[in-house]
Design a protein that fits this description.
By secondary structure, this protein is of the alpha/beta class. The protein is 39% helix and 15% strand. The chain binds phosphoric acid mono(formamide)ester (CP). Phosphoric acid mono(formamide)ester (CP) binds next to α2.
Length: 305
Amino acid sequence: MALNIKHLLGLKDVSKNDIQLILDTATTFREVLDRPIKKVPTLKGTTVVNLFYENSTRTRLSFELAEKRLSADTLNFSTSTSSTKKGETFKDTVRNIEAMKIDMIVVRHQSAGVPLYLTKISNAAIINAGDGRHEHPTQALLDMYSIREKLGKLNGVKLCIVGDISHSRVALSNIYGLLTMGAQVSICAPPTMIPKNIESFGVKVYHDINKAIAENDVLNVLRIQLERDAGTTIPTLREYRNYFGVNSDLIEKNNRDILILHPGPINRGVELSSEVADGPYQVILDQVTNGVAIRMAVLYLLGTK
Ligand code: CP
């Protein structure tokens, strides 16, 4: 089986069959991660560049680890130690890296559309590791994998994305991917954190966190993105926490069976209490482990086309 896509730029146009193939392939690689020797020779001879123009812990390290687990050669680019600091343009940087005969580029950038632009100036397979407020497809894939692992299915699952929807690339990729897989997707946030016309995507909107918890199987709780001016859409973080923060009292009052996801990094005590972030309802560190398997699957499927 092969993917119908050459690059992974987002989940908007990725078919159900392709998402299914990535999730099923990740199941095989997840098993590799539990072996004493966590390495397979699948991408021996393939060179992958991790081109990160924006900070990251989980995505950058898990892509690098996934590449190493697949025996690929990896190069890590970061703006702070590169000639970008001397004024080299993005295009020149990419063309110089490409001249070193690389095969794949994993890119994170603060500007939406950079992964698409890379497909125009490079012959490498491009994987979007998060572009501005646009998409973060491997995050949504690992979220779907984690839900399927716990609930056994995605079709018919009721999932609510809580928080800063308007600044979130995770929300958009979750909405596209989960709707494609037959889940019922809703969002819960203050009106100032919800993009206009969101209902046209086919999602229900809540403004009451009690109702969102009571009526859903899964909450995907998002970080308040202060670095993207989210602070200007709410009066104070304390007020946000009081009305939309998820804590164990709310869960125990409304739905003790709920599954809590968070993409990280967490603002503890704002969108999620520490009790919930470390408690029995969440699968946050499972998401991180599954992220390595998902990234191995994406690298393998695109790297061996
Ligand atoms: N979830 C996520 O993308 O985390 P990082 O920003 O640490 O990669």
